Amino acid sequence: MKRFILHYGRQFGTLIGLFVLCLIFWILTPHFLTLANLLNIAQQTSINAIIAVGMTFVIISAGIDLSVGSILAFSGVVLAGALHAGAPLPLALITGMITGGLCGLVNGLLISLGRLPPFIATLGMMSVARGAALMFSNGRPVSGFSEPFRFIANGELFHIPFPVILMLAIYLIAHFVLQRTKLGRYTYAIGGNEEAAFLSGINVKLYKTLVYVLCGLLSAVAAVILTARLNSAQPIAGIMYELDAIAAAVIGGTSLIGGVGSVATTLVGAFIMGVLRNGLNILGVSSFIQQTVIGSVIIFAVLIDMALKKKGK
Amino acid sequence: MKKILKISAIAAAVAVAGACQRGEKSGAAGPTVALVMKTLNNPFFMDMQQGAEGAARRLGIHLISQAAEREVDVEKQMQIIENLIQRQVGVICVSPSGSREIIPAILKANRAGIPVIAVDTRVDSAALQQAGGEIAAFVGSDNVQGGRIAGEFIADKLNGRGKIAVLEGIPGHETGDARLRGFHSAIRQNPGIEIAASQTANWERDQGYNVFQNILQSHPGIEAVFACNDMMALGAVEAIAAIGRTGEILVVGFDAVTDAQQAIRRGAMHGTIAQNPAEMGRIAVERASDLLQGKTIAKNIPVKIELISR
Questions:
Q1: Residues A207 and A273 in one domain
Q2: What is the ipTM of this complex?
Q3: Cβ count near B308 (within 10 Å)
Q4: Chain B interface, mutation test: which of A156, A272, A286, most B Cβ atoms within 10 Å?
Q5: What is the pTM of this model?
Q6: Domain membership of residue B212 as a residue range
Q7: Which residue range is the domain that position A307 belongs to?
Q8: Which residue, A58, A80, B3, B225, has most beta carbons within 10 Å?
Q9: Is residue B296 part of a domain?
Q10: Mutate which of A37, A84, A300, A311 to disrupt the B interface (most B C-beta within 10 Å)?
């Protein structure tokens, strides 16, 4: 019962943090709280938020994935290459997804079968996928796509940008998967106590691998949006995106020790970062100060998280 | 309790940032111009910002300077522009991190009726036209002219004859290609000069070293080398030092970075082409001010470029 209250109390706390942040910006500038700007923020947040879903799964399983940015770049140039080679849109999208999924699969196998620490396996993949992206594209951006593809980033349904709809759909599904399906519950179990999970008959290797495949797939989804948004796939795209995704999950209260977290709070975490960047831009705050502010927010969020955890025990 | 702690922490952080901007609240009197640079981790853009700030003070313009954390992160740059459109700034000056990738952001500014001035790096004009976008002006160095000056300098020093080598930038980069075009046009005027080798060293110092070492192996008679940036030139300087021939081979670079200027002073390098980022910032803000007053401005505004030698 106490756990329950703490769990939802935290969720609520992060959300209140987001509202307070919005309130501050609303007081400071009239340009912040407009419908156009809120949709703008949602659109800008979508890429990080989608990567952060996969990252949340990985972190709940007590792992980490440093390769998401490189996988994003690799699947982006493969997708773009397929489009330029004249592949129909669905086929090109699937090719991009498979690329991301395969990179995730390799991560998962190295960690589950190869028993490599996730940090090392994905650190290696970070470099391998980046190199693959550069090789595939010859180091050059692949740009210029047709209108149907660009709709993915620029289109609107009922005045809501398509990436935002995609993001919300992914979060609904991910929330369901994490709370209601075997994959979700086993992810918590493995992250909470891997040995106990194994002894209770969970196929730990399989589910651990699946979590990384999911993370790779979602990086590829983010690549689709990014490529459509810039009308270009860059082999150097996504550098350090892993840290933004980790930050969103951590601000949302996902514990790096594993076993604790939810995608709903990760979404709030991603929005806190998006709102901060947007508001500070609008205020015209110096870029140097912006980095310090965002970093401070991450540190405070984790400090609170640790304090809460101590209380929970 | 913890909740309150967390909220107050975030509030404090933002309030600090807000406090640093006192008196700059949006809606303040005077027109607003935005300068969006690639990054501020590069002295080039620090100079650009200073030049822009000086002009803004003089003209009574409220200048907002923003930059992405990393030079290659064109998506962050796009976010900054989107946010500044929401802020309803008067003019956006941008140094694009990607000549094509920035186009969707320019289109958004166009739709919002905000003029865009490109600074330092050109926007891909064919792609921009195809997308139906428009920029008000380009303010930046004429890299073709810079390459030509370098070529003329080398031809002059060699008295119009000899074998030379070229270290190119990453193929497909507009900046490097333009410098190369200018350089070639100057060398063509001097039939006695032969470009014996021309290879890329990807803008990097260590590759400049390796590539030039290899070139020297196959063409020992090389008398001069032109590198499309100073980093590669400095690599070549090291390769020349490694075989004990410092000062014997003419080395000309581009950008006038501090290391290159020092190398010129001690005679290891012979020339470099200096751009003027502070001028770019100044001119960009002045032309933005003209636009805000409804004046028409030139589409292409070259910024002074000069040879630095001993």
A1: no
A2: 0.82
A3: 15
A4: A286
A5: 0.79
A6: 143-274
A7: 263-313
A8: A58
A9: yes
A10: A300
